[in-house]
Specification:
The complex is a heterodimer of chains A (243) and B (151). Chain A has 243 residues and is mainly α. Chain A has 8 helices and no strands. Chain B folds into 2 domains: 30 residues; 108 residues, OB fold (Dihydrolipoamide Acetyltransferase, E2P) (Beta Barrel). Classes of the chains: A mainly alpha (243), B alpha+beta (151).
Chain lengths: 243, 151
């Protein structure tokens, strides 16, 4: 299969992403500036947690992004698996390091919050904590699988199957705090009966979530563009070698 | 059948089987995934576990008192059942700042012969409610302050 027609679509992607990127990057900067100010300075302390509550503005968006990035990675994986579309494979592949970063950030900020509030950094018996650690390992396993195979098509297929199987962990993470009794508190925002977070804290939280989303879009587009460019260079080199 | 359709069926069937396997695993695990036993769980047992375990509930309002500087006693309750707890902070460290009457806590330890839970560690639980101090004060004044139920 010759390199070029496979990347007909990536050409269109490159044009479209070039138009989105400046906006996504600008939004990332503006939203993080506003969000971090509101989270660290402009929002009230919590009645019980005092200023420790400010960790929540990083922890909760990071955890949401860790989950949604995984779902997106699985969707791209499924598309790549069924339609053999290389751009979908590349998109899935590049979701993984970003998602792993979000997961690690949520785990670390969770431990930093848990130590002063719960009195423990980590509890193995807690269903939410353990299932979230499994999410981190799923990301690492997915990244590793891509490295194992020389042939990118085989790597994409194997990694896609892992991503799809790992989907089962997502509802487990989400519902762990309802299904089982845990040390981790139940959901405060996306719950029946509405949020149990005061509006003065909820707004900064949503702005931080938007900032994380804008960051994710920016980084994902940048990563995919870099990989597509890499493939193009390789295809050009091949053509030159053949000529 | 086209290869594409075959792969689509493969993914669909795979996800369906995965969901069934997940559901079976979920029902098989059942209550074993609990982080702590409630006082009510403990009462239902013929005898308390012979190993160290977690006991969780609300710290009963008015129940916290100290034998001396460091040895602390309180009652964990789930509303229906109570279990008295003793915790020696000299040996095991202080309770977390969030530990308070009317709030959730999880104690780790063993059941003593006299029916008192001897804790070797006490963790505080936080509920899903986040509010500024003024709002909490206003709720307390109006009597609408709701104690977080143990989860």
């Amino acid at each position: 299969m010759s390199g070029w027609h496979r990347f007909a679509n990536p050409t269109r992607f490159s044009r479209l992403s070039a138009r989105i990127l400046p906006w996504a990057l600008a939004l990332t900067i503006v939203l993080f500036a506003a969000g971090l100010y509101l989270a660290l300075v402009g929002s009230p302390p919590d009645a019980r947690q005092k200023d420790t509550v400010r960790i929540m503005y990083i922890h909760v968006p990071a955890a949401w992004m860790a989950l949604s990035t995984y779902v997106l990675m699985a969707i791209f994986s499924g598309m790549g698996f069924i339609w053999k579309h290389p751009l979908a494979d590349i998109a899935a592949k590049n979701c993984a390091p970003v998602g792993a970063g979000f997961t690690l950030l949520a785990l670390i900020t969770g431990a930093l919050w848990g130590a002063p509030m719960w009195g423990t950094w980590w509890e193995w018996g807690d269903a939410r904590l353990t299932s979230f650690l499994i999410l981190f390992f799923l990301y690492l396993g997915y990244i590793a699988l891509w490295q194992v195979f020389e042939d990118p098509e085989k790597a994409a297929r194997a990694a896609a199957i892992l991503a799809l199987v790992g989907l089962i962990n997502i509802p487990v993470i989400h519902f762990s705090v309802q299904w089982w009794n845990t040390l981790h508190q139940p959901a405060s925002v996306f719950r029946r009966g509405g949020p149990t977070i005061d509006p003065a804290m909820l707004w900064p939280l949503f702005i931080m979530l938007a900032a994380f989303e804008a960051y994710f879009v920016s980084v994902l587009l940048l990563r995919i563009r870099a990989e597509v460019a890499e493939w193009r260079v390789r295809a050009l080199q091949m053509m030159q070698a053949e000529a | 059948m086209k290869r594409k359709t075959q792969r689509m069926i493969f993914v669909g069937a795979g996800l369906a089987i995965l969901a069934i396997a997940g559901a079976l695993a979920f029902f098989a695990m059942g209550d074993n995934v609990r982080f702590f036993y409630s006082p009510g769980d403990l009462r239902k047992m013929t005898s308390p576990p012979d190993v160290s375990f977690h006991l969780g509930g609300l710290v009963k309002p008015g129940s916290v008192h100290k034998d001396n500087e460091m040895v602390m006693r309180f009652v964990l309750t789930d509303g229906a059942s109570d279990v008295p707890v003793v915790f020696d902070q000299t040996a095991h460290g202080l309770v977390p700042d969030l530990f308070a009457e009317g709030q959730g806590a999880v104690a780790e330890g063993r059941m003593g012969a006299d029916g008192t839970f001897v804790a070797t560690r006490v963790l505080a639980k936080h509920d899903e409610k986040y509010m500024p101090p003024e709002v909490a004060d206003a709720l307390k004044r109006s009597g609408e302050w709701q104690r977080g139920a143990p989860q």
